[in-house]
Specification:
Layout: H1 2-12, H2 27-33, H3 42-54, H4 59-69, H5 80-96, H6 106-120, E1 165-166, H7 168-174, H8 187-194, E2 202-203, H9 204-226, E3 241-245, E4 253-257, E5 260-269, E6 272-277, E7 286-290, E8 298-304, E9 312-319, E10 327-330, H10 338-359, H11 364-388, H12 400-406, H13 410-421, E11 433-435, E12 442-444, H14 450-457, H15 486-511, H16 516-526, H17 528-541, H18 546-562, H19 568-587, H20 605-637, H21 642-661, H22 664-676, H23 681-699
Antiparallel strand pairs: 1-2, 3-5, 4-5, 4-10, 5-6, 6-7, 8-9, 9-10, 11-12
Helix pairs in contact: 3-5, 3-6, 5-6, 6-7, 6-9, 9-11, 10-11, 10-12, 11-14, 12-13, 13-15, 18-22
Length: about 725
């Protein structure tokens, strides 16, 4: 522990990573400590050399510590090189990220990218995959003209080819070791967004551009939090400004309440939304929408416009028990609604993190760590949006708590995260390590709040009572040497399920067709077996073929009498299961054949509009008929027509007695006989007569009265 504190103290007394390579040792002494490790590739040796300088150790001492501290199964030949590389990288990064401005340091960016390259090529068996240094690939020079990382031109370390790229696995193992750069829950989505235009491979120039944008975002947020009083905001301790919109008078945010709207400035912190109206008067006070309380709060996209008209899809609705009516925050822009979508996403993330805190009843340090995770995630989201002008959506979002709410099994991710946050401690003692029997061979009993520590080191004001350990640990953030921790496993399982959901959704999007007639035609073809069965049943009930109808009647009545009818549904389900298994055996993984449908004749837009109007009119008539039936039943129940009510009441009493006395199978048999034999020749005339009498009786039943009362519009009372 004391050695770790000494290393960090020496590091903090220097200005940047660069100064770590200008120690008091002579060049000869430095070269003596740079001895290549036989098991590592040249690029891995290069990275380990730089890590040993940061840790102020020789490569031999670093390797000795690795072999001493870790269990034997981490030193198997197949994984030795990669585990040693992770060991040195994580210990070095735990020192480097304590610099307040490490994101701005070009050497930090180059080092972390080289760590990813080395992770993909850690051992000597893959040396041929990499090119050696050449005159066409100059070394990175410091101000004194010497190589920053390689003090001797004859050193075994190679310079990284600028054309080399990094894959997703290496990025996922190194980037989360720097909490500001990536989060273990969203690291795959971040890599996807950074490489969306480069075929799934990350180039250093893109990585460098991302870190530069991230640094600017953090710097802007820190500045905004510092001048909060100038924004007429009264922020609580530890409250951080995440973003501000509407600062330019020509591009304000519009707050709609009822039919009234005011332009103003919107500020989001990790605790609340603040809206400041422009101008003077009654509405010049800052309105606060607290996102921390359990107020049944909802934010969602919404249409809005002048005087309450629903014209523009550019607004976000906020609703909670603390406001009398929904508040609409409109983000005007020339076209599209990306501005609204961005604010909806980051506001939802703040809501989700506070729900997570309340759900698991978190203590102070756990709350601070969860909020810090969400804060850093929003900063990364802003950085990607501002530099690449894209907004990740759905399963590709960069917001951890919002993503966990969308992914299949996202509740498992949150539960696992809660379990890890329960291990947090701010004690400055080294974390204990115990050997377990699970997939994770080494699970610490205490973890450090790395996200809180990162925000504090970046210059954000946090509660004074939070104290941080300063020793170098094997765990950095959510990654550890040679391990996949439970949180990472939960994310991978959830992502696997989400890939299936995305593939299924893609097939849904492909089969969607436009036009009412076309959709009706598709539905008719899909329901053809059901329609055909109903037609055959109607044919039997019409008694056009007396022999078939009689045979069917006898079989069904006998089945009801014997009690076999209860086995009908299980029989149908068993037949369906058998057909599915038989189909699976026959298809043997072959793709499903396309369902063929004969589309109706094409119609022009006017004809389609007429058809839509007719369909709506028919639907309206069905709803009206349904309402009339319900109102007539209401009239009968409330005795609006006493004579009819007497008959209905007597009928209900008789039916109650029948149901109480007669066995159920006889009632089913009688009901089936009554329905099925209506069209038999000697019963047809009597059935039609009774049907006519019942219809005439029903027509004479009056409908219960209805009175429509218009609700008062409270928004009109506002001035």
């Amino acid at each position: 522990m004391e050695g770790g504190i000494t290393v960090f103290g020496n590091f903090m007394r220097q200005n940047s990573i660069k100064s770590l390579f200008r120690g008091r040792k002579t060049e000869k002494e430095t070269d003596a400590s740079i001895k290549p490790i036989p098991q590592l590739s040249p690029i891995a040796n290069s990275v380990i050399t730089r890590c040993s300088r940061i840790l102020q150790l020789s490569t031999e001492d670093l390797q000795h510590q690795f072999e001493t501290e870790l269990p034997d199964h981490f030193k198997e030949p197949s994984t030795y090189a990669r585990n040693l590389l992770e060991y040195g990288a994580y210990k070095a990064l735990n020192i480097v990220i304590r610099s307040p401005d490490h994101l701005a340091d070009k050497e930090f960016r180059r080092l972390t990218f080289d760590m990813m390259l080395a992770w993909e090529d850690p051992g000597t068996e893959s040396v041929s995959l990499h090119k050696t240094a050449s005159s066409s690939n100059p070394e990175i020079e410091d101000e004194e003209g010497g190589s920053l990382f390689y003090t001797n031109s004859t050193s075994m370390a190679i310079q990284v080819d600028e054309r080399k790229t990094v894959g997703p696995d290496a990025f996922a193992r190194i980037a989360p070791a720097c909490p500001a750069v990536a989060d273990i829950i969203t690291v795959d989505n971040l890599f996807y967004m950074l490489t969306s235009a480069s075929g799934g491979q990350l180039h250093f120039l893109i990585y460098d551009k991302y870190l530069g944008s991230l640094r600017k975002v953090i710097k802007t947020a820190k500045s905004a939090s510092g001048r909060a009083t100038g924004l007429n905001l009264q922020l609580s301790k530890g409250e951080i400004v995440l973003d501000v919109d509407g600062t330019i008078p020509t591009q304000p945010v519009l707050q709609h309440i009822g039919i009234s709207a005011w332009p103003g400035r919107l500020t989001l912190t990790n605790h609340a939304l603040y809206f400041e109206s422009f101008g003077v008067g009654l509405h010049d006070k800052t309105v606060v929408y607290d996102l921390t309380m359990d107020l049944k709060q909802v934010v969602k996209p919404e249409l809005t416009g002048p005087l309450g008209a629903r014209l523009f899809d550019k607004a976000m609705m906020y609703k909670s028990t603390s406001v009398a009516e929904p508040v609409y925050l409109e983000f005007p822009e020339f076209k599209g609604h990306s501005r609204r979508d961005y604010w909806l996403a980051i506001t939802s993330e703040v809501l989700h993190v506070h729900r997570f805190i309340r759900r698991f009843n978190m203590k102070e340090i756990q709350q601070a760590e969860a909020l810090s995770r969400a804060t850093l995630g929003i900063f990364r989201y802003r950085a990607v949006r501002e530099v690449f002008h894209i907004l990740p959506s759905h399963f590709k979002t960069l917001l951890a708590f919002d993503l966990a709410g969308k992914l299949p099994g996202g509740d498992t991710i949150l539960e696992t995260l809660s379990s890890r946050l329960a291990l947090l401690s701010t004690q400055s003692k080294r974390s204990d390590v115990s050997v377990g029997t699970s997939n994770n061979a080494r699970l610490p009993t205490v973890l450090s709040p790395f996200s809180v520590m990162t925000l504090s080191r970046l210059g954000f004001v946090l509660p004074k009572e939070v104290d941080f350990p300063e020793e170098a640990e094997l765990y950095v953030g959510d990654v550890c040497v040679g391990e996949i921790n439970p949180l990472e496993m939960a994310v991978k399982e959830s992502k696997f399920d989400s890939s299936k959901a995305e593939a299924a959704q893609a097939t849904v999007d492909q089969v969607k067709v436009e036009g009412i007639d076309t959709n009706v035609a598709v539905m008719k073809e899909l329901l053809f077996p059901v329609v055909e069965s109903i037609k055959r049943l109607q044919f039997l009930a019409s008694w056009e073929d007396p022999f078939k109808s009689t045979l069917f009647l006898v079989l069904i009545c006998y089945a009801i009498y014997r009690g076999w009818i209860k086995y009908m549904l299980p029989f149908i389900l068993a037949v369906l299961a058998t057909l599915m298994l038989w189909r699976k055996h026959r298809s043997k993984g072959k793709p499903l054949e396309a369902f063929k449908v004969n589309p109706p004749p094409s119609r022009n837009p006017f004809e389609q509009l007429i058809a839509l109007q007719e369909a709506i009119s028919q639907f309206e008539m069905l709803v009206q008929d349904g309402n009339i039936v319900l109102l007539k039943l209401r009239a009968l129940l409330l005795a609006a027509l006493p004579q009819a009510t007497d008959k209905v009441a007597l009928f209900l009493v008789i039916m109650a007695a029948v149901f109480a006395i007669v066995p159920l199978k006889y009632l089913f048999t009688f009901a089936f006989l009554e329905w099925f034999t209506r069209e038999i020749p000697f019963r047809k005339e009597v059935s039609e007569k009774w049907t006519r009498r019942i219809r005439e009786w029903w027509v004479r039943i009056p409908a219960a009265p209805v009175q429509l009362i218009k609700a008062e519009d409270n928004s009109k009372k506002r001035k």
